[in-house]
Amino acid sequence: MLSPLIRRSARERGQALALTLHVVLLLLVLGQVVYLASRFRARVDMTSDALWTSTTSTRSVLAKLEKRLLIEAYFSPKDDLPLNMRGSRDWADNFLDEVTQLGNGSVVVQRYDPNSDKAVADKATRLGVTPLNLSSRSATSLSVDQHWQGLRLVYGGSRQEVVASFLPGSSFAAEAILTPKIKEVMVGEKGRFGYMEWPVAAPQSRTPSGVGWAACRSNEGLKKRYEFQNVKDEDGALLPDDLETLFLFRPKDLSDRQKYVLDQFVVSGGTLVVFADAAEYSVGPQRRMRNRPMSIDAQGSELAFVDMLRHYGVEWRPRLVCDVDARAYTSKIPQEYIGLQVRQRTGLAMNVPVPYPYFLHPVNEDWALLADQFAVDATGQVDARKAAQLRKTLQPGMPADDFLFQAFRRLNRGPGFYWPTWVGLARRAGGGLALPAGVDGRVLLWSSPRSLVEDPPQVLDPIGQDPRQWAGKSQQFLAERIARLRAEPRRQAPLMCEVKGRFTSFFAGRDRPRRPSEVAEAKERAPDKADVVAAGDEPAAAGPEEAEVGPQLAEDSVPAAMADERAMITESDRPGRIVMVGDATFLRDDLISGGMRQQGGPFSAYGLVFFAQMLDWLSEDRDLVALQTRVPTDRTLRFVEDDATAQTDPRDAEQALRSKTRGLVTWNVLVPSLLLAVCGAALWVWRRNQKRAFLASLQA
Fold it and tell me: 633 in a domain, yes or no?
């Protein structure tokens, strides 16, 4: 029989072995967790707008990597950065790590410190990485330190892109900067677009002076992915066969020859995108909306451009659309439309928005659901019969589901248009569609049912010229349009349409319009008949044989331009496409660049966004759709609501803000203190009751 001492020793050894086994197993489990965590990632984003989640654009771009993507990060040490820049470094590091993980081995990040090696600093400078020279101040000295935070992307060892300064302020900003750069370095060939533009006369100028559409085409992000070529030829040569898409920016003074060039392009299977205006209004310093003379067709033209578009199935009415529904001409960006500089009591000037229904945007609203609002009669009652009819005819403001409009759907509105025109599908007198055989069409954008359509007036000043009458004139201007609307039936105006299919030539059965050089050469070769026919003598009728007599062009003397040009194509052998937008002003240089923004507008806030997404839409490039359509939520705390239309003293607004801030600070101090006091009192009462119960049990 074992002694108690021996039994106790064995029991202690068993406990030590069990403890050792538990420690070993725990280490094995932790090792497995570390191993799995290093190879498999699982994250849950709890934010309402997926603030921490990469979009499908980034995942789609990285999934298409066929070669290695090397990202050289020229970063100075984080500990040396100022405190206000360390947050940006965290965002940059986190997104680079995210890209590496999503790349599945195809993405490699190499980090370099230019401050520790002069050769690295020289290389970064030569590549185009911009150093940040930031000053630091102490009580006794002032120094300027150089910091680096740039990237170089190398794809397949041949193509590269450089991000001079990678300073994101959020994960969304990091993705918005880096993902398009990855897309650019992957693309071997740029998409090619042709364009023709007709410049607009600058204010206080009678001749066109270069106000055009270069700003939307020269954007740095777009130039890296797309190439734009001016194919406007004064001699009217046919477009190259390899050109697939052509933009027309405000076509006017079109000759028959130019129409023939466009016709042959469409019939050949090209995509024609037209940004059309019916009038050329100038925006003067005091908002003097004056209509300059403008003709769609050139003088002497026998064929109308409107008839040519209708032949393809597009009905363009060169008339202005005026939308008096407040939802269509109001925005959180006052300068997007038009404003007035109003002097406050303090002497400061403030831009106040003015209701101007000729500057409008399509609204992402199903107008059929609001039919009762548009069927109210003179007595204020809803006309049930009229409401039922409107439910059948009213269209959503943005009916298309194309990714071109996804970002604007989130904004609940389309891009802002300026003096837009009616652009829809051709219809018969009875109301049915009149599209050519083999052609399909759809309307992509509609105005609200509270729209007027009119010929372009000569003057559209909303405020007049006397500053003392601005407010009254503006109200009168809007009231006149509302009064006209009451006398007209409710209708929507189409603002953008698309037709595609196998088109037939508008010039089929007609003679081919000659180029200007051909006309000039024919005049030079024509005999002078004035010397042949004597004054007062009637020319003799030419017989069949006499008609052949006279100077004729030899076969070898045919102009080279006529000999090289291909024969007319009357029927398409592959589908073509026409996209027409009833406004060109929203893409004009002065509105895109914000030249009039400080004066209260107009400023095309979303014009460039719409144009960029249209390029991807036309190219059927969906890679950056999710990134472009991502709209970050504004999380700014607003203690006092902004009312841009209220002409209040800024000092009153500042006083209200201070009062609101003091109240919030007071509550932030009092509420936690009261909660702690209540919790402490409740705990004290609970413990006192426990103590009393314990003492009572002892006495019992």
Answer: no
Q: Do 305 and 269 have their domain in common? A: yes
Same domain (yes/no): 287, 301:
yes
Which pLDDT tens digit goes with each residue over 353-410? Answer: 889 999 999 999 999 999 999 988 877 888 899 999 999 999 999 999 898 998 898 8
Residue 477 within any structural domain of the chain: yes
Domain-terminating residue out of 628, 655, 673: 628
The answer to whether residue 468 scores a pLDDT higher than 80 is: no
Report the alpha-carbon distance of residue 185 to residue 66 in Å, rounded.
Answer: 12
User: CA-to-CA distance for 247 and 228, rounded, in angstroms?
Assistant: 10
Structure-token pair, residue 467: 């500053």
> Quick check: helix, strand or coil at residue 194?
strand
> CA distances (Å), 195 to each of 179, 438, 582, 688, in order?
28, 27, 17, 86
Regarding whether 320 and 197 lie in a shared domain, the answer is yes
Q: Is residue 377 part of a domain?
A: no
CA 612 remoteness from chain centre: 6
Q: What is the pLDDT of residue 425?
A: 96
**pLDDT greater at residue 264 or residue 86:** 264
Domain boundary among 186, 217, 251: 186
How does DSSP classify residue 366?
B
Task: Encode pLDDT of 224-279 as tens digits.
Answer: 789 999 999 988 899 999 999 999 999 999 999 999 999 999 999 999 999 999 99
Encode pLDDT of 27-44 as tens digits: 888 888 887 776 666 666
Which comes out higher in pLDDT, residue 463 or 15? 463
Count of the separate structural domains present in the chain:
2
Q: Residue 180: is the preceding peptide bond cis (ω within 30°)?
A: no
Same domain, 209 and 322: yes
Shared-domain flag, residues 332 and 451: yes
Q: Is 95 exposed, middle or buried (0-12, 13-18, 19+ CB in 10 A)?
A: buried
159 within 8 A of 188, measured Cβ to Cβ: yes
Residue corresponding to tokens 């003293």: 649
Structural tokens at position 140: 């006794």
Task: Say how many CA atoms lie within 13 Å of 658 toward its Cβ.
Answer: 6
Distances (CA, A) of 641 to 352, 353, 652, 654: 16, 16, 13, 12
Residue range(s) defining the domain that contains residue 278: 192-363+398-505+568-628
Q: Which two tokens stand for residue 485?
A: 């609307």
Q: In terms of Cα–Cα distance, which of 621, 624, 615, 620 is closest to 228?
A: 615
Beta bridge partners of 133: 146
Distance between CA 634 and CA 626 in Å, rounded?
A: 19
The encoded tokens of residue 37 equal 């965590």
Q: In angstroms, rounded to a whole number, what is the distance separating the alpha carbons of residues 439 and 447?
A: 25
172 and 214 part of one domain: no
For residue 676, is pLDDT > 90? no
Question: Does 30 fall in a domain?
Answer: no
Q: Which residues of 188-218 are buried (b: 16+ CB within 10 A; e: fewer)?
A: eeebebbbbbbbbbeeeeeeeeebbbbbbbe
The DSSP line for 661-678 is HHHHHHHHHHHHHHHHHH
Please compute the mean of the pLDDT values over residues 62-72 and round it to a whole number: 91
Neighbours of 579 (CB within 10 A): 23
Residues 211 and 78 placed together within one structural domain of the fold: no
CA atoms within 13 Å, Cβ hemisphere of 18: 6
Task: Tell whether 116 and 223 lie within a shared domain.
Answer: no
CATH code for position 108: 3.40.30.10
